[in-house]
Specification:
Length: 193
């Protein structure tokens, strides 16, 4: 059952990764178009900043869910890293439980925020779109993604703490820790990667 859950989260992670890349490309292309239209043609595009802002907001919340799948959120392993593996799994399970409680508390309150923001419309876009699609909805999507990932990670840590095997990561690492260490050493030596 956990394997099916892991694969579904991996699929969700790949979709999030594609969307984040597309949104970042969208930001770069739009800002470049704004610079060109303003400085070469003397006619700035009024909607570009709004599109870039909305893309950035979506990128942030999709990226938060994706970072949890890659296990790349900021963490301090000083205490847990010194514990035996199975005891560390218990502490990690507690952390994921706290995340689940926080997100489960947050999500119901987002419903009213979405309803309120859907009454407002965008300002500078060529078409009027409810602003909730760019503020509360990305937060809700990111929170649901993180909630689903945290539930999986909680189950994995509990199973491991109770003597079960540790399944593979949800998402294969983009860069291994050894690659990061090597890159950091090269940077300190003044070498190019």
């Amino acid at each position: 059952m956990l394997e099916i859950y892991r694969r579904l989260l991996g699929l969700l992670g790949r979709v999030e990764r594609v969307l984040v890349v597309l949104l970042l490309v969208n930001i770069v292309v739009n800002i470049m178009a704004q610079v060109i239209s303003r400085y070469f043609f003397g006619r700035p595009l009024v909607w570009v900043e709004e599109v870039a802002t909305y893309s950035f907001i979506w990128t942030t919340f999709l990226g938060a869910g994706l970072a949890l799948k890659y296990d790349r959120h900021v963490k301090i392993d000083t205490f847990v890293g010194k514990l035996p593996e199975r005891a560390g799994a218990v502490f990690r399970a507690v952390v994921f439980l706290v995340i689940i409680v926080f997100l489960a508390t947050l999500l119901p309150s987002l419903q009213s925020a979405i309803e309120i923001e859907m009454r407002r419309r965008t300002i500078a876009l060529p078409i009027q779109i409810p602003s909730g699609w760019f503020f509360s909805v990305p937060l809700a999507v990111g929170a649901v993604s993180m909630l689903l990932t945290s539930v999986y990670k909680l189950l994995v840590e509990l199973r491991f703490a109770l003597g079960g095997p540790r399944p593979p990561d949800i998402m294969p690492p983009l860069v291994t820790d050894q690659d990061e260490d090597t890159a950091a050493e090269r940077a300190l030596m003044g070498e190019r990667p």
